Every structure is written in structure tokens, then in C-alpha cells.
């Protein structure tokens, strides 16, 4: 048994059983841990009905990132798999990911398909402004947290999952820190997963924009060249002032939301800067991986 599969659920009654049934059919032995984010719909009971599934019930909803971070200290296997509760992995999913973990590889990203069969993600890329987006080809900058395998020791070395991100960009942030520590990240098209995408969070909602904007800026302050991080922070501030005056349409332009994001980023600024690693790889990684988002690609997110 080389892998602990961590499934985070919140109100997953409608899809959790399909996910766990698919995990039970995997060809490689593994430990399965379901972290229930204080669900009130019976999700924990569904998970407990599966043999060999460990259930960890949190007292409050800590989001995807917080739930992952909560169980990281209990993982003793060589690898840790991240899997959304609305994802259904093919039988050989885990085997394909484990086989891809060469000594220099810190993480492997699965191939996620939408219910209509189209490819949602083969991994994560970076735009020239530091936005993460779902790639549909390889190579990839980072892994998509909806279905991926991470080397447990490398994750610990990189500082672990950022619990206070709550949701979104935790996978891109971890990917960036893995690369800063010298690890490679690969895409594994043989590791297929059927993914409902967004079943547990409403894409485009006020909370979605809050978490995306805040976590992107904090990630840049932690990982990107400082000129990039502060340029994006300044751009966000200017756009916020413009939104206060002109009141453009769109959930992400609501002044209250943007002011809250700014306040949360400022509060996290000292810790984000303190978490920065020394060395020259930061500029090299940015030059190698940051580029314009390809036409039609979607911003990363579960």
C-alpha cells in the first residue's frame, strides 16, 4: 500500500457513493480517508457504510484546502491522492498515477473528463498575469487538485496544503512550491476520471470570486517574482477603485467583495512573504511557464 486517497466531501450525498464505489474497484491497494466538512445531509454515514473507508468528521466546514491539511499529519504512505467527491476514477486510475511517480516527480495530474466526455483538465497552466487555468494538453505547470497524486514527503517539504485558502488555488500554490523545491510535475492521460465539476461549489458565485481572487494574490506573494506579485496587487487595487466609481456589472466587480479581498490579502501579507523560498528558481520558473491563456481555456477550479 503506497497511497492514501483523501476524499473531501461537503453535502456529497448525491455523488459520494459513486466516487467510493470506483475507489473500491481500483487495481492497487490503498488507504481511503473521507474528510466530511460538517455535512448535514448524511454524507458521513454514506462513507462509513463502505468497508475499509476511514471517516474523519470536522466540526466546521474548513473547505477543500482546510480538510486536506487537517488529515495530512496522519498520512504515512509514500503518496497522497487528492480526489473530489464528485469524481469517479477509472479502474486503473491509481495504478497509472503511481507508475508515473519517477524519483524526480513530486506530483502527477490525472485526466479529468466532463460528463459529456470532453476533457476538462490534464493539469494546470499559468497565464502571464499569474492566473491558473485548466490545460487540456501536456506539459503542465501544475496538477489539478480534483484528481492527483502527490509525493507525501515532497508535500511536507514544500510546506503542506495552505489550509487558509479554504477553496481554489491550493493545487496551483502547492504545484508552484513543489517546483520551487526542485520537483517535476507530470500529466498522466492514462489516469482517467469522470468529473461532475462544480457539484459542491457554485462557479461564478460571490464566494467563488472571493476565494479565487484572494488566493491567487496570496499565491503570487508566496511564489511569484515580487515584481509580478506586487504588480498584480496594484492592478487589483486600481480595478477596485474603478469599480467603486463606475460600478460595472459582474459579481467579481462588486465593491464590497473586492474590498474584502484586499483586506484579507493585507492580513495575510506578512505570512505570505515569510513563506517565500530563497533561490533563483522563482524567476526561471516564471519565464518558463507563465504565458497567455490559450483561446477557450477555462480558469482552474473544481
Structural class by helix and strand composition: alpha/beta
Q: If helices are DSSP runs of H or I spanning 4 or more residues, what is the number of helices? A: 10
* CATH class descriptor of the largest domain: Alpha Beta
Q: H/E order of the elements? A: EHEHEHEEHEEEEEHHEHHHH
Our Rg estimate from Cα atoms comes to 19 Å
Description:
The protein has 302 residues and is an alpha/beta fold. It has two domains: 3-195, Spore Coat Polysaccharide Biosynthesis Protein SpsA, Chain A (Alpha-Beta Complex), CATH 3.90.550.10; 206-278, no CATH class. Helices cover 38% and strands 21% of the residues. The chain is built from ten helices and eleven strands. It has helices at 16-24, 43-48, 63-71, 93-99, 152-157, 170-180, 206-223, 226-246, 255-274, 281-289, and strands at 3-9, 31-36, 53-57, 79-84, 87-89, 105-113, 119-121, 123-126, 132-135, 147-151, 184-195.
Brief summary of the model shown:
This protein is 38% helix and 21% strand. With 302 residues, it is α/β, with parallel strands linked by helices.
Topology overview:
Layout lengths: L2 E7 L6 H9 L6 E6 L6 H6 L4 E5 L5 H9 L7 E6 L2 E3 L3 H7 L5 E9 L5 E3 L1 E4 L5 E4 L11 E5 H6 L12 H11 L3 E12 L10 H18 L2 H21 L8 H20 L6 H9 L13
Parallel strand pairs: 1-2, 1-4, 2-3, 6-11
Antiparallel strand pairs: 4-10, 5-11, 6-7, 6-10, 8-9
Main attributes of the structure:
302 residues, alpha/beta, Spore Coat Polysaccharide Biosynthesis Protein SpsA, Chain A, 10 helices, 2 domains, two-stranded antiparallel sheet, nine-stranded mixed β-sheet
Amino acid at each position: 500500500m503506497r497511497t492514501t486517497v483523501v476524499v473531501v466531501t461537503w453535502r456529497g450525498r448525491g455523488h459520494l457513493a459513486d466516487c467510493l464505489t470506483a475507489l473500491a474497484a481500483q487495481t492497487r491497494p490503498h488507504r481511503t480517508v473521507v474528510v466530511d466538512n460538517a455535512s448535514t445531509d448524511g454524507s458521513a454515514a454514506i462513507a462509513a457504510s463502505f468497508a475499509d473507508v476511514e471517516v474523519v468528521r470536522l466540526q466546521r466546514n474548513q473547505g477543500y484546502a482546510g480538510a486536506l491539511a487537517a488529515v495530512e499529519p496522519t498520512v504515512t504512505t509514500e503518496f497522497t491522492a487528492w480526489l473530489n467527491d464528485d469524481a469517479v476514477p477509472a479502474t486503473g486510475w491509481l495504478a497509472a498515477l503511481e507508475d508515473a511517480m519517477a524519483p524526480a516527480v513530486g506530483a502527477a495530474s490525472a485526466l479529468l473528463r466532463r460528463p459529456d466526455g470532453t476533457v476538462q483538465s490534464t493539469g494546470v497552466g499559468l497565464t502571464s498575469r499569474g492566473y491558473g487555468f485548466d490545460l487540456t494538453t501536456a506539459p503542465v505547470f501544475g496538477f489539478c487538485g480534483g484528481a492527483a497524486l502527490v509525493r507525501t514527503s515532497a508535500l511536507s517539504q514544500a510546506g503542506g496544503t495552505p489550509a487558509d485558502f479554504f477553496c481554489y488555488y491550493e493545487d496551483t500554490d502547492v504545484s508552484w512550491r513543489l517546483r520551487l523545491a526542485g520537483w517535476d510535475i507530470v500529466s498522466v492521460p492514462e489516469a482517467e476520471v469522470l468529473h461532475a465539476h462544480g457539484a459542491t461549489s457554485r462557479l461564478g458565485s460571490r464566494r467563488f470570486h472571493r476565494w479565487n481572487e484572494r488566493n491567487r494574490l496570496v499565491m503570487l506573494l508566496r511564489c511569484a517574482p515580487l515584481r509580478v506579485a506586487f504588480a498584480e496587487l496594484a492592478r487589483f487595487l486600481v480595478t477596485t477603485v474603478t469599480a467603486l466609481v463606475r460600478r460595472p456589472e459582474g459579481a467579481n466587480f462588486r465593491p464590497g467583495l473586492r474590498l474584502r479581498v484586499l483586506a484579507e490579502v493585507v492580513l495575510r501579507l506578512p505570512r505570505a512573504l515569510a513563506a517565500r523560498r530563497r533561490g533563483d528558481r522563482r524567476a526561471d520558473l516564471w519565464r518558463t511557464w507563465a504565458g497567455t491563456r490559450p483561446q477557450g481555456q477555462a480558469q482552474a477550479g473544481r
